Amino acid sequence: LVLALALALGASLGAAFPHDALKKSCSLSKYQFLEPHELKAVRKMTEQFGSIMGLSDRKCSIRLFRRKWKPVELSLPDRVMLVEAELDLAIAMLRLPADPSFAETRQRPLAFLTQAREDLRGCVAAEAPSHQPSGKLRHWLQKLQMAKETETASCLEATAILHLFQVLEDLRCAAHQEKCT
C-alpha cells in the first residue's frame, strides 16, 4: 500500500513538474525585440555619460568594438559567448563608483544587462557547456583580456558605455536561433 501510494504521488508530482522544467532552459527570445523603456533608459544613460565624460577619456584608443567580422558570421554558441563577455565588461564598468546623478541613471540599464547576462549564462550551461570559441572569437576574447590588463578604468568604462547599443544589437543577434541580419 505504501509503495503504491509513493508511486502514485511520484507520478502526480512528475506530471505537475515536468522534467524539462527542472532543467535550466535557454530562452533568449525576449531579447529579439527589446522593450522601448529599456532602450530609452540606455539612451539616457549613454547621453548623460557622454556629456559628463572628460576630454582626456575621449583619447582612449581601445578598438574592442571595431572588429573585422560581424557577430552574424559566428555560430550561435559563439554569439552567446561574445555577448556574455561584452555584458561582463559593461556590467563591471557600470558598477564602478560614479557621480550620484549618473549612479542613479545607470541603475535600470545595469539591472537589465545583469538579467540578460544571467539568461545568457543559462544558455551557455544548457546549450554548449564545453563549446570552444572559434578563432575569430578567441582572438577577440584575448584582445578584451589584454585591454582589461593594460587600459585605465576610465578608458574601459568609456568604451563599454559608449558601445552599449552595439552590445544590445549583439544580444538581439544572439537571441536568434538562426542567423540574424
Descriptive keywords:
181 residues, mainly alpha, disordered N terminus, INF_lambda
Query: Given the C-alpha coordinates, what overall shape results?
Result: globular
CATH C-level class is Mainly Alpha
Mean pLDDT: 80
As residue ranges, the low-confidence spans are: 1-24
Number of helices: 9
What would you give as the CATH superfamily?
Interferon lambda
How much of the sequence is in beta strands? Answer: under 5%
Q: Per CATH, what is the topology? A: Growth Hormone, Chain: A
Q: Please, how many domains?
A: 1
* Percent in helix: 55-70%
Query: Could you tell me the number of beta strands?
Result: 0
Radius of gyration: 20 Å
Distance between the termini: 60 Å
Order of helices and strands: HHHHHHHHH
CATH architecture: Up-down Bundle
User: What's the main sheet like?
Assistant: none
- What structural category do the secondary elements indicate? mainly alpha
Which helices and strands occur, and which strands form pairs?
Elements: H1 2-16, H2 19-22, H3 36-52, H4 76-94, H5 100-105, H6 107-127, H7 135-150, H8 153-162, H9 164-175
Structure commentary:
- There is one protein chain.
- This protein is mainly alpha-helical and 181 residues long.
- It has a single domain (34-175), classed as Up-down Bundle (Growth Hormone, Chain: A), CATH 1.20.1250.
- It is 66% helix and 0% strand.
- It has helices at residues 2-16, 19-22, 36-52, 76-94, 100-105, 107-127, 135-150, 153-162, 164-175.
- Helix 4 (76-94) packs across helix 8 (153-162) and helix 4 (76-94) runs antiparallel to helix 9 (164-175).
- The radius of gyration is 20 Å and the shape is globular.
- Residues 1-24 have low confidence and may be disordered.
- One of its GO terms (cellular component) is extracellular space.
- This is IFNL3 protein.
- Keywords: Antiviral defense, Cytokine, Secreted, Signal.
